[in-house]
Specification:
Layout lengths: L3 E7 L7 E6 L7 E10 L2 H8 L2 H6 L4 E2 L3 E9 L11 E4 L2 E2 L5 H4 L10 E2 L11 E5 L3 E3 L6 H4 L2 H12 L7 E5 L3 H12 L4 E6 L2 H9 L4 E4 L5 H8 L5 E6 L4 H10 E9 L11 H6 L4 E4 L7 H12 L8 E6 L3 H10 L4 E5 L1
Parallel strand pairs: 11-12, 11-14, 12-13, 14-15, 15-16, 17-18
Antiparallel strand pairs: 1-2, 1-4, 3-5, 3-9, 3-18, 5-6, 6-10, 7-8
Helix pairs in contact: 5-6, 5-11
Catalytic activity: L-threonine + NAD(+) = (2S)-2-amino-3-oxobutanoate + NADH + H(+)
Cofactor: Zn(2+)
Main location: cytoplasm
Length: 346
Amino acid sequence: MRKEMKALVKHRSGHGAEMQMVPIPEIGPKEVLIEVKAASICGTDVHIYEWDRWAESRVKPPYVFGHEFSGVVKEVGDLVTNVKQGDHVSAETHIVCGHCPQCMTGKAHICQDTKIIGVDRDGCFAEYVSLPAENLWVNDPDLPFEEASIQEPFGNAVHTVLEGEVSGKTVAVIGCGPIGLMAVGIAKASGASSVIAFDLNPYRLELAGQMGADHLIHSGEQDPLDEVDKLTSGNGVDVVCEMSGHPVAMNQGFKMATNGGRVAVLSLPSKPVEIDVTNDIVFKGLTVQGITGRKMFQTWQQTAGLLRSGRVDVTPMMTHTFPLEEFEKGFDLMIEGNCGKVVLIP
């Protein structure tokens, strides 16, 4: 086997990245080497690419970034028993410690010492990636590599939507980026009586309609709270999935939730957000949930089931595919917002 591979490297502090030839990773006794067949671009990757304040404080170039992928097992360590050469796999991207109180009580998704693939260690924008075997999820070999590569963010959406009851409920999805679009499809597949999608981007609102949203609200041209009042006879929505991270949109989300409703927040605001806790949370009796990662591995089971059954069709929001060498086209589309999910092929 050759010793080098092509990879997309965050080569320095600052904007951009570059293709380089780097050593193929070596594996330890509990690790696996995977040949990457498809890797999708995440919002986190965009933060790293653009080198915003979060990236500057967290990542340490030079290294290979990217964390959403699917591929085929090429080599396994001597102590690996859960996967074998030739298996089609994706990965839980949070590498957890296994011994903190959260890990010891079945809550590894909120491990106190989480390390993230493509953030804290080399990632998957490359021909090969090495990972702990315990982080791998074996895919149905009939699942296309492109679709298999988006299971990690799909799991974020599953966790957000299905952390509480959805069947027969009105669901608002605020922010129709890729994970918001997935949330629309998941809510519909899970029996939501009505799904209302909010965004400022007409292109992504159109995609939300294709994913099954019953109502599309352009928050810059319509008053979201007025529209929700009309659509719910003044009662408000039962479930709010906050995916935007925008202070105004977040406040609207809390205000549009019905008394006794649930607000699930996956978004990551760049600075503190002021919320009227007294009137919009306490007096309304809301349940507010912060969502991070995926439950290991309950969320992966739900994700695989939704995709395998065909209950959620992700193809409408998988809008662009490029060779890895054309990464700049993909990142430009993500930055502009003129895309759904972008997949890179090494």
